[in-house]
Structure formats: C-alpha cells, structure tokens
Amino acid sequence: MPKKVLIIEDIPINLNLFSILFKKNGYEVQGAENGKEGLRLAKVMSFDLIVCDLKLPGMEGGQIVNLLKSEDRLKDVPIITISANNLDEMKVDQSLIEAHLAKPVQPGILMNKVKSIVPPEENDALALSRQKIADLEKRVEERKSSGIKVVDGFPVEQISTDTLEAGMIIGDEIKDNYNLPVFPIGVVITEKHIDKLKSLNIKEIYIRK
Questions:
Q1: Nearest Cα residue to 38 out of 84, 73, 5
Q2: Across the strands, what pairs with 157?
Q3: Per-residue exposure over 121-148, b if at least 16 CB sit within 10 Å of its own CB, e if not
Q4: DSSP letter for each residue of 115-143
Q5: What is the largest CA-CA distance in the chain?
Q6: How many CB atoms lie within 10 A of CB 170?
C-alpha cells in the first residue's frame, strides 16, 4: 500500500502542486486548506507523514504543531514544516518536527527529504518485476557455480550437428571456420539450418537446454 501523506497548505495552487508531486512519487495524498481541517483529518485518518505550512489562517506556527503532537495517535507521526519564516520566528519547538524547509522550496529538495523520512512503497508490478530479475540472477549464478554454461541467462549444452532436430533453439552464436557469424543466439532451428551447418562442416553447436 502507498504511504499516506497529509498536506496542510492554505494556498490552493500550492496544495495542488504538492499533491501532484507526491502522487507522481508514489504517495497517497490528502489535502487540507487550513489548520482546523488538517487537525480533523489527522484525528480521523491514519498518515505516515504530515507536511504543514506554518502560515495558516487563524492557526500559525507552533500552535498547529503542538496540537498535532498532543494527540496520542499522532505523536509518532513525523512532521515536515514549510515556511518563509524560520522556526524561532514561528515559535516552533524544533524537537517536535522531523525537518523544516524554507519557502519557496524546490520540488527535488522536498522529495529527497520526504523519501529520507518515509520512503515510498513500490507498486506491485514494479516489485514483482524486481523479484523476477533477482530470481533470474540467482538461477544464473547457481548454474555458473555448478559448471553449467549459461548464455544470456539460459543454460546451454553442446551437441553434435548430427543429432540436431528441428525446433531446438541455438544457445550461443554460431561462427564458421573463418570466425564469421552464421546464426545468432535464439534462432529456432529448421531443417534448412541443419543442412547449412553440415555444409559448412560445423561439427558441434550449443543449444538451449
């Protein structure tokens, strides 16, 4: 499941831009345009991170941070504050927040900080793809260690051209006696291929097992 982020920002265009940025980076986003709405959402929903502007109508600086951290269920949720003012000016207890970024904040800087605190979850398709690659690499290493020849991730064996059959797959590039390429890897052998190999006096080739 994607990590959930609450963004509290009173300027609609900024809130929209932040939301798009976070979603593109694999996060689920809930937005609030004022501190009161942000507190309400934080109390009734579960979040992995709260990103909060410190200049909010009717609730500024340390007030919003203190109210968030006063809730038992929120005390361990990391908070990133964003403001054109420094923390002292906004009367924020730095020990209550994970990080503070000055406005205007660059998207790259913001996301690097966010990912260092709450790394995004990989989507299922990407995670499955990575696992398949890891499994393939593991099998290749196992085959190498067992002494089996592996070409392009496939185990191959050397056989005589006299025992070739149509439908077999060429496991390694075939070259003639002058070291010129004849057939590339992965070609499905036909009777014509067999005849050509024999005419070139090629005695053995590698096929995929």
A1: 5
A2: 207
A3: eeeeeeeeeeeeeeeeeeebeebeeeee
A4: HHHSPPPPPHHHHHHHHHHHHHHHHHHHH
A5: 90
A6: 23
Q: Which residues are within 8 A (CB) of 168 and not within 5 positions of it... i.e. 6 or more apart?
A: 188, 189, 207, 208
In this predicted model, what pLDDT tens digit does every residue of 141-186 receive, in sequence order?
765 665 567 777 778 888 898 998 998 999 888 888 888 888 888 8
Instruction: Judge whether 123 and 168 are in contact, CB under 8 Å.
Output: no
Q: How far apart are the first and last CA of the chain?
A: 40
DSSP assignments along 77-100, one per residue: S-EEEEESS-TTTTT--GGG-SEE
Which tens digits make up the pLDDT trace of 10-53? Answer: 999 999 999 999 998 889 999 999 989 999 999 999 999 999 99
- The pLDDT of residue 149: 78
The answer to whether 152 touches 184, Cβ cutoff 8 Å, is: no
Please give the structure tokens belonging to residue 30: 């809930």
Amino acid type, 109: I
Q: For residue 121, give every residue at least 6 positions away whose Cβ sits within 8 Å of its Cβ, in sequence order, or none.
A: 1, 2, 3, 26
